[in-house]
Amino acid sequence: MALFDITAAEEHDRLRSLYYPGTNIILICFSIDNPASLVNVTKKWISEVRVHCDQCPVILVACKIDLRTDSQKIAELKTQGETLVTNEIGRRIARKIKADAYMECSTKTREETF
């Protein structure tokens, strides 16, 4: 098994396309404390995946779910006019992009939910 963490940087668009052939599954990850990363799922990642790897199962993955109980992070985001991405919103986006599954995880607490 090989895993590739692919950057969203535009200068890597052509290079990224080389990783898709032979791919068996796609994990599209976003950070719950960065709503813009979830916007990128719908604006960039899913369309690119569908072009290069249309038959691959897609799992949408919410990362850093431990932050949902971090009052300091919640307050910090509030001062910026933002909130953490909720489970409900993540699931709604997963349905919108027709992901095969939705999961949430935290590397800090090793928590995961499907």
In brief:
The protein has helices spanning 13-17, 35-52, 71-79, 87-96; strands at 26-31, 58-63, 101-105, 112-113.
List its traits.
114 residues, alpha/beta, Rossmann fold, four-stranded mixed beta sheet, 4 strands, 17% strand
Explain what you see.
The structure is a single chain. This protein has 114 residues and is of the alpha/beta class. It has one domain: Rossmann fold (3-Layer(aba) Sandwich), CATH 3.40.50. Helix content is 37%, strand content 17%. It has four helices and four strands, in the order H-E-H-E-H-H-E-E. The protein has helices at residues 13-17, 35-52, 71-79, 87-96; strands at 26-31, 58-63, 101-105, 112-113. Strands 1-2-3-4 form a four-stranded mixed sheet, with helices on one face. Strand 1, helix 2 and strand 2 (58-63) form a beta-alpha-beta unit. The two termini are 22 Å apart.
